[in-house]
Structure formats: structure tokens, C-alpha cells
Amino acid sequence: MEISDPLPFLEALGLLRPGERIAPPDALFNQRLQAGVQGMDPGIVEALRRATGGEVAGGRIKARERVAERVFPRDGRMTPAAVESSLSKLSKYDGAAFAAKADLRKLPEAARSTVEKAMVELGAMLPPALVKRMPSTTISFSSAKDMEGVAGKFHPRTGRIRINSLLENDTAQLIATVVHENGHRLWQALPQKNRRIIMEHFMVRTAGEKPFRHKGRDYYRDQWADELAGLEDGTEVLPYHLELLALPPDVLAARLRDTKLRETLEVILQAIGIITS
Questions:
Q1: Residue 68: pLDDT band by 50, 70, 90 thresholds?
Q2: Is the pLDDT of residue 65 over 50?
Q3: In whole angstroms, what is the distance from residue 70 CA to residue 277 CA?
Q4: Model-level pTM?
Q5: Residue 35 and residue 112: Cα distance in Å, rounded?
Q6: What whole-number distance in Å separates Cα of residue 246 and Cα of residue 180?
Q7: What residues does each domain of the chain span?
Q8: Is the dihedral of CA 38, 42, 44, 47 positive or negative?
Q9: How far apart are CA 229 and CA 50, in angstroms?
């Protein structure tokens, strides 16, 4: 049944008085949203609390405003200019200290300049205390057989970063790879409590998902920045989402319209200490 004007129908049901009109709400529907948890399994309650980033009080889960939505604009205002402004606010430090921890002497001059700039821009977002914890690294190009089909590799024991030689003249991919591999360095340097922030997010987001197999490892697609970000041990979440910060503002604006992607980026920014809850 189609009702062209629902008001007389609602009046006939006694839900409205004659002549009464419905005023739109003056607040967002989800504002001060809460959920009762009485009688719920404690494990489910904790998973919900982690997923919402909220707190349990008075038998209810109280959601908090997403930090990422205070850093980056919401969907309707997600313009390149607004995103660029957001990124500039995150760049609070002297990135030269981070760049100085990388030996770039093995790189050709043009590529060295590109890599150094990427390191400075990334370092400008990183808390100095975290940069201080990080060991030095060497970044070089490699055409070794084990580099076939991969953009870069980070060696967890030596801290060395190798980049596929084919990327020497591909500026955008070179920058993305440098940021990604430094994401692995950051993961190593993070305190366990900070790593736990990412791992809890990973477990909530992948709960019940069926993995797919790739090169002998299990991956969970979810809605990550890249399907390979869902590696079974959770260690690729940080590197792949850190790459987002190196995207041009117009590309990043388009990507961040995905609320799940924005949520994961928020978790990454919190774990690293770039933003606080």
C-alpha cells in the first residue's frame, strides 16, 4: 500500500493530533548513542567496547566520537583542501631527526632526494620519543632475485630496507614503498601496549572471516587499505595504512570517504602516538 500523505493516516491511528506537524530532530541520530549490555556475554561486551572505542558504565556501552573525524573532515566535507589542512596539523615536529637515522648514500642522487623528502615528511608526524627509540637503517635499491614481484623488503634483524630497482624512476611508488617499509620499522619500535591497540582492532575486524591463501600465508580481506594488509599476524596493518598519509590530498580524500578505512587509520595514528584519544 502506498500512502502519498502519511499525516492523515497517523492522525487516524491516534499517533498525531489534528494539525500537528513533525519537526525534524536538531541533533544527529547517533549523538550520545548508548547500548545496554545487561545479560550479554562478557566476551561480547568487551569486543563491542573495543570496536566502538567506548567505555562500559552503568551497564551500558557509551560510544565516543571518532578521533579521526576530529582530525579529518567527515564524508560531506572530505575535500582535498580539507584533507591537506588536516595533514599539515599532524606535522608538528622536525622530521629531519627521523630522516637522519637512514643511510641513503647507496641511492642515486635523484632517488636519494625523493626518499629523504619522504622520510622528513613522515618524521614530522612522529613523536620525538618514538623516533629516539628507533635504530638506524640503510635504504638501498636491489635487483636481487628475491625482490621479483615485490616493491620493497624490510629485514627485521638488521633493520635494512631494500627497494626494488624498478622503482627508481617511479616517484609515487618509490615514496609509498619507503613509507610502507618504515612502517615495519615503526612496528618494531612500538611498545607492546601500543601494538596491542592495533592487534585488538585487527581481531575485532576479522572475527569470523574466512581467510584467503597467498604465498603460503593466510590473509583476511575485511576492508583494509589493501587486501594484503590483512596478513594473519596483523603486522601489515600499520605499514599499509601508513602509506595513506603519503597519498596526494585528492586521492587521500577519495579513499577516506570509506568509514572503515578512516577508522583503521585512526587506530594507526593512535597506536603511533600521532593523535590521542
A1: very low
A2: no
A3: 10
A4: 0.75
A5: 53
A6: 10
A7: 23-64, 69-272
A8: positive
A9: 20
